[in-house]
Specification:
There is one protein chain. The chain has 129 residues and is mainly α. 36% of the residues lie in helices and 8% in strands. Helix 1 packs parallel to helix 3. The chain starts with 10 loop residues before the first helix and ends in a 15-residue tail after the last strand.
Length: 129
């Protein structure tokens, strides 16, 4: 038995996975809510190894930054700009689509679209478009 699971309250889920039994929705919720990341990781690693062996894969990612304008002033960020800053930018939807199309030609498998907290946002959880 994996060291991280010997005294874990997730041990029964690990044993279920080892036995080849399917996890229930309640089991999945327990894993999701668990703070025992070592046990969750050990269980996931066992399931991965059983399914694909000792193989790894990767994605080809394109990072599209739609804007560096941000309404916050986080102390750790050197990225964000205010509207008054000369080096601020905001891409249009057609510009973003073109960047995505260019990336597709290169064989990307994932788009990662990010940007600053935009002025159109009233709060971090309420968007007004």
């Amino acid at each position: 038995m994996n060291f991280f699971l010997q005294k874990s309250d997730l041990r029964n889920l690990y044993e279920k996975v080892v036995a080849g039994r399917r996890l229930s929705e309640a089991d999945a919720l327990r894993l999701f809510e668990s703070k025992d990341l070592n046990a969750v990781g050990a269980t996931a690693d066992f399931a991965r190894a059983r399914k694909v062996g000792n193989r790894a894969s990767y994605i080809v990612n394109r990072y599209i930054n739609y804007s560096n304008y941000c309404i916050l002033s986080c102390q750790f960020c050197s990225f964000a700009r205010k509207k008054r800053d000369a080096d601020g930018f905001e891409l249009t939807v057609p510009q973003m689509v073109e960047k995505a199309r260019e990336a597709l030609k290169l064989g990307i498998t994932e788009l990662h679209i990010v940007g600053g907290l935009h002025r159109r946002c009233r709060s971090a959880t309420t968007w007004t478009w």
